[in-house]
Amino acid sequence: MKNARKIRYGDGSMIKQPAYVSFLRAVNVGGRVVKMEVLRDLFRGLGYAGVETFIASGNVIFESDSQDRSEMETRIERALQTALGYEVSVFVRNLAEVGVIAAHRPFPESSITAAGALNVGLLKAPLTAAARQSLSLLETEIDDFSTHGSEIYWICGKKQSESKISNAVLERTLKVKTTLRGFRTIQKLAAKYPE
Questions:
Q1: Rounded Cα–Cα distance for residues 126 and 49 (Å)
Q2: CATH code of the domain in which 17 resides
Q3: Is 104 helix (H, G, I), strand (E, B) or coil?
Q4: Greatest Cα pair distance in the chain
Q5: Pair 33, 24: CB distance under 8 Å
Q6: Residues 16 and 90 occupy one common structural domain
Q7: pTM of the prediction?
Q8: Please, are residues 108 and 128 in contact by the beta-carbon 8 Å criterion?
Q9: Same domain for 61 and 144?
Q10: How much is the CA Rg of the chain, to the nearest whole Å?
Q11: SS3 for 193?
C-alpha cells in the first residue's frame, strides 16, 4: 500500500495503514499552551494509530484507514474544540504530499539561501484566481509569494520580524484559513517520515 507504515500489533500481526501529518493552527502560540501528550492522547482517542508529535508547534503524525482528508480534518477540529475550548484549524497531508512540499523550490536557490525566512502556508484547497491576485498585492520589497497545490510559499528577504506579513494577515486578505510552518520544519518532517 502506497504511503503506509507497517503496524505491529500485540499478537504479532502486521498491517499497513496510510500515514498522515496534521498541521494544527493556534497551538502553542499567543499564550495558548497545549502539551504534546494531550494532543497524542486526543488523536488516540479518535482511534488513530501510530500517533507521534513533531516539534511543539502542532504537528501530529498518525495512521488511519480513512483516505477522506476533509472528514479527518473536520473530526479532529471538533475534538480539539471540545477538548481545548477554542477553534483549531487542521490541515492534513499524507506523507507523499509532505515530501512534495519539501522538495518544491518556488524561488531561485540563491534567493532561498539569502532569505531571512522561508515559510509554507498550508491551505484546505488551492487558492482561487481572485485569492492569488489578492496574494500578489501583499508582495513588497522584502516579501514574495508563490503558490503550488494547496500551499503558499512566502519568502522574506530580511528578518521575518521586519515584515508586516503574518498568518492573520494572510487569512484576512485571502479569506481562507491557513497555518504557517518554517520550510526547514517541513524538510525535517519529510526526512523523518519518508513515504
A1: 29
A2: 3.30.70.1280
A3: coil
A4: 60
A5: no
A6: yes
A7: 0.89
A8: no
A9: no
A10: 17
A11: coil
- Per residue of the chain (195 residues), what is the pLDDT tens digit? 345 555 444 445 444 578 999 999 988 776 778 999 999 999 999 999 999 999 988 999 999 999 999 999 999 999 999 999 999 999 999 999 999 999 999 999 999 999 999 999 999 999 999 999 999 999 999 999 999 999 999 999 999 999 999 999 999 999 999 999 999 999 999 999 997
> 157 with 144, same domain?
yes
Q: Are residues 163 and 90 in the same domain?
A: no
Q: Which three cell numbers stand for residue 60?
A: 501530529
**Residue 80 near residue 90, CB atoms below 8 Å:** yes
Which CATH number goes with the domain that contains 165? 3.30.70
**Residues forming a β-bridge with 91:** 23
Are residue 108 and residue 184 in the same domain, yes or no?
yes
Instruction: Report whether 123 contacts 70 (CB < 8 A).
Output: no
β-bridge pairing 90-94 and 14-24: antiparallel
Task: Give CA–CA dist 63/100, Å, rounded.
Answer: 19
C-alpha distances (whole Å) from 73 to each of 22, 30, 46, 118, 124 are 8, 22, 12, 25, 9
Last residue of a domain, one of 69, 94, 119: 94
- As for how many domains the chain has, the answer is 2
Residue 77 domain boundaries: 4-94
